[in-house]
Every structure is written in structure tokens, then in C-alpha cells.
Amino acid sequence: MSKENISFEEVLEFIEDLPYSKFRKLVNHYALHNGKEFEQELNNMVILDLQSRLEKLNIHKHCPQCQSSKVVKNGKRTNEIQEYKCKVCSTKYTLFTGTLLEKTRYDWDSWVKVLEMTLNNYSLHKMIHILEEAYGYEGINYKTIWHWRMKLIHALAKLPMPVLTGVIQIGEISIKDSNKGNRRIIIEECDKEKGDTKQDLILIVSAIDNRGYCVSKVMPNEEFTTKLFKEEYKRNISAPAYICSYPVQVYEDYSKEYNIPHFIKPSHYINDIQTQAFIKESDEICNKEYIKNKGNITYGEVKRLKEMYHLGVEEIEKINLQLQTFINQKMTNVNTRYLQDYIGLYVFKKNWEVTYGHLPTSKEDAEKIFVELLKRKKQVL
């Protein structure tokens, strides 16, 4: 095709489809032939492209401070970044303000790729290799890519967790605190009878409903009480039909307060069963579970309800086992102050799989998620 036959629109379409490595070569070629500084020209083009994408996504269509729609353009900052001003509260901002892209120098495709690699559990070494080979980030170091990845993980962890309903299984694990991040985190089972933890342990309480949606939270460093559980889970439990757990006092008190039938699987089966006055001594004690807040029911009725509503603790045990594996793989030599972020990543992927029927592994999945993150308020570390 001759130069005369190529329209400007065709050139733009051609550029948009270029891999980032070839895009860099194109900008470098332009800079060399027009006496421009390559890195500055590249940065300007990246910023303008990101700004255009944010505008199309309606990011900050309203003032990020007071949510007023009465905003006007207020000149441009460096790198041709458009500034806006709210006519109500006088806040000045750009489309980048408070988003993951604020003060960034990375292009759109690189952000999506790093998120895709994060979702697919790539090692830092492999991420660096791909960014160097395919995206031209020569000399990018471990610290840079670690912070980049953590910024995305933190944003994912800040997304709202689902509201659980129906039959809800609840359980907990504890890990040893690691302030320096210089030793492998050791997972231990909590005391299922008392529901409390030692001072050097961090408690993680998880729940899953019969749809498969789950919530997992690091409890504050204080005594695990019913009040604390209610505070942490008040936005994540609604109209439960049953609570299923081991005989932890916190869950028993919570279920009793809200008159929720509580399916309990004892740790010490026979002794626990025999102490329940509402179960007849003549009933066969084989499965060893019982239900509170359901009136005086026989063990046969317990078995019938268990089968009908799929009561048990098997699913929460699977979640806890997966969490153990996930944390051990991801948090070796990592300070436990990042624990909720890593757990948030696990929960996000788990719930995405329930919603969409597959784990978020593709570039398309990553881009969809990245757009969702950009539409959230400030979530940076």
C-alpha cells in the first residue's frame, strides 16, 4: 500500500493492534527521525493512551471528593494530562487521581499482563523475564515487580466480598505471626473446642454457603468473641437457613442470638452427643452430629435434615486446606501484614470461579477485572 492510500484512521487502527514491543520500536523510529527524546515521547504517548481509555470508561465523571457532576476542565498538567475542577468543592483532580494508574509509567497492555500473570501464580522471576522479552522493560528488578504485583493484589483484596446466605459453613485456622517476614508461615489448626487463639497466633475465619461463595478474613489481634465475629461478618451474612461448624462457642452464641438452627459436628463425638438432653439415649449414635436451636428433635431427624439440606463441615474444611496450601506457597518470607491481601486474592479467584464457571486465567479475564479495579475508589498501598 502506498503512502498516499493510507489514512490517519488506518494508521491509528494499525498502532492499536501492535504488541507493546513493536509499539516501542515504532515510537523509537519516530523519535530518531524527528529529533525527539525517545523515553519522553514514549511516556507522553502512554499517558495520552491511558487518559483516553479512562475517559471512555467514565472514570471520575463526577468529582471524586463530593460526587458532584458540576466539574469543568481546568487546564493541563505536565505530559498533557487534563486537569478538572469541581465547581462545588473546588477539588482539582485528573482522571488518574486515586486509581491504580496514578503516577504510573506503564502502558495499558503491561498492566493487564502483570494482572494476568498474578492471577496465574507466575513467579517473580518468570514475570520479569516476560516483561523484559515481550514488553521491553530492560533491567526491571524484583523490588519493582514485587510492588507492582502487590499493588494489584491489594486492589483485588479491597473488592467487596459476597453476602452469604442459605446453609453456611464456618471454620477457622490460625497461623504464627511473622513480623519480619523471614521465615515460613506455619499453619496450625485452631482449638475447635474453645474457639480462641494464643497471643502469637493470627486467626483466619472463613465461611462458605451452599452456592459455593466464600468469605475469609483475618481477625483483629484480640480475643475472638461473638461481638467481634458479628462486627467482622455483619455485611457478609444474610438470612442464613443453617449455620454449620465445630462446637466453637462463638458460633453457638451467634446462632442462639439470632435463632439460627446450628448444625454441630463435635470433635469429641460420644461425650458431646450424650450431654445433649434433646437427643434420646436410645437413639443410635453413629454420625455423631447434632442440631441446636431446632427444638427437641431425635437423632433420626438430625440425619434426615442433614441429608435434605446437605449440612456438614466438609466444604469449609476444603477451604481451610486450600488456604493452608495457598498461604504456604505465596507467603514464604513475607510479612504477615500482607496476609489479608493474599487471602483476598484467593477469595476473589474462588468466587470468580463460582460466578463465571472458570478461574480467571485469560487475558480477557484480566482486562475485565482491571477495568473493574479502575472503577473503584482509591486502593493503592
Structural category:
alpha+beta
Count of alpha and pi helical runs: 13
How many individual β-strands? 10
Helical amount: 40-55%
Terminal residue distance: 49 Å
Give average pLDDT, whole number.
83
Low-confidence stretches: 180-197, 269-274, 276-287
User: What string, H for helix and E for strand, traces the elements in order?
Assistant: HHHEEEHHHEEEEHEHEHEHHHH
Shape: elongated
Main beta sheet strand tally, sense and closure? 7 strands, mixed
Rg (CA only): 27 Å
Percentage of β-strand residues? 15-25%
Polypeptide structure, described:
By secondary structure, the chain is α+β, with helices and mostly antiparallel strands. 43% of the residues lie in helices and 15% in strands. It has 13 helices and ten strands. The protein has helices spanning 8-16, 20-33, 38-56, 108-119, 124-135, 142-157, 226-233, 249-257, 269-274, 299-309, 314-330, 339-356, 363-374; strands at 71-76, 82-86, 92-93, 164-176, 187-189, 201-209, 214-218, 237-245, 262-264, 290-292. Strands 4, 5, 6, 7, 8, 9 and 10 form a seven-stranded mixed beta sheet that branches. It has a three-stranded antiparallel beta sheet with strand order 1-2-3, with no helix packed on it. Helix 8 (249-257) links the parallel strand 8 (237-245) and strand 9. Helix 11 crosses helix 12 (339-356).
